[in-house]
Automatic annotation (TrEMBL):
Protein name, as recorded: APC family permease
Membrane topology per record: Multi-pass membrane protein
Pfam families, A to Z: AA_permease_2
Organism listed in the record: Streptomyces fildesensis
Transmembrane segments: 30-57, 78-100, 131-150, 162-182, 194-216, 237-258, 284-311, 332-354, 360-387, 399-424, 436-458
Top-level lineage group: Bacteria
InterPro entries linked: AA/rel_permease1, APC_superfamily
Alphabetic keyword roster: Cell membrane, Membrane, Transmembrane, Transmembrane helix
Record localization: Cell membrane
Amino acid sequence: MRRSLGVLDGVVIAASTTAATTSIGLGMGLLTGIVGLHLPIIMLLAFLPILGIAAAYSRLNRVEPNCGNSYVWVGRSVSPWLGFLSGWVNVVGTVVFLAYTTTVTGSALIQLAGQAGLHRLAGLTLNPDSTLQSTLLGMTVLVAATLAAVTGADVAARLQRYLLGFEYLVLLGFCGYGLFAGTQPFSLDWFNPFTIPSLAALAQGMVVAVFCYWGFDAAFSVSEEVRDPRDASRSGLITVFTMLGLFLLGAVAFQRVLSHGQLVDNGAQGLTYFGNQLAHQPLAALPLVALTFSAVASLQAGVIPTVRGLFAMGRDRTVGPVWTRIHPKYGTPAAGTLLLGAIAAVVAALSLVIPKVSELISASVSAIGIVVALSYGLTAVAAAVRFRGLLRGTLWEGVRAVVLPVLSALVLFALAGYMCWGYATSADHFALRADNGWFLLLMPVLMILSGLLVAGWAKWGRRSPYFTAGQATDAGAADLLSAEPTTVRTSATI
């Protein structure tokens, strides 16, 4: 793959994958229904373990830049089985993310049509909360985004740069204005974690908030395509702090403008309602346009890092060779990109069993949040294991390299475990509904079980060298570090 990206390109890809505008527009209402008017503190609390995870990614990437990142790092430092599982749940989680974002994109387009006065088409009443209508429309955008991703990460980053610039200008403008124009009284209680309704609400809110930060690691998935591998680390950390600022601004602004009831009732149309409270048409439509741009950019950005992870797996023969085929002109894993887009479209079609967009979002976010916590936690453990020798050095280096990643991992593991236990005990029967605990638990369980089955086939069926002791990394890793032999020798000693 060609090296064509810089720091800004990495930030654009990671920020587009994180999709702050989408998270704010759709997530504020969902989070309010869980934690009440405590959006600012829940976003701040979630940032703390995420910062520890991001620091672990950055340190690991400096000594072993690899598009497989957690799949390679966990496999080498902890266990090939856990490494494969970490990579696999990221892949499957992103497929689910692409599927529901496809629906979100279609829903946003239908909302835009309604803002323009188009409410019926060919005798059909357009409904932005209809999963069927939204998914079918969103699939056309998914196809276009997938084709664009084939042409190269640098081309995608240039397109996303304009989309991201527009949506951030709109987000900053409306949220900044909302801070002063909002009629809801500001309260320091919004920043008080001890008044969150319950421990269960805190745990569920934290999982959803962690999910909102998910995607910063996309910067590390293109580390083999940046001109300097250290740029990927810079991009990842810049993205994390940027997201914190945007989420805090959005959380406070939403609570200044909208009441608790308004936030909960509007759900997936929260950003549209927020815009209507602050401006008249056509200016009121700008947040919805920004949401649409964010969803489109995240579709394309979501494909890029996931295919790179599968490319790393393909080099180890833990998955099929189709994922390693590089296009001779574009220098991208084109066949895998097209295949991933097709799989996401199929999953989007299967999600039609959930009739309402708002319920689909809630179910998907909960499932992905659990497996993201697992993957991020394992990566932090891998960093602590690899750099444990720094505990014998200065105290601060040992804390940064080992203690903080371990604490971050424990927080995420505890949150995921508590959520799973809550889902298991919240229902006494299974039902295909977004509010059924067993159904919500089934999705992350299937993601993990499928990963174990594929790992077993990779080990005993494909006889992948990834599972051989001392070789739990892909074949290209040594070549990637040839330019920095001193760093490699130091990391090996550590």
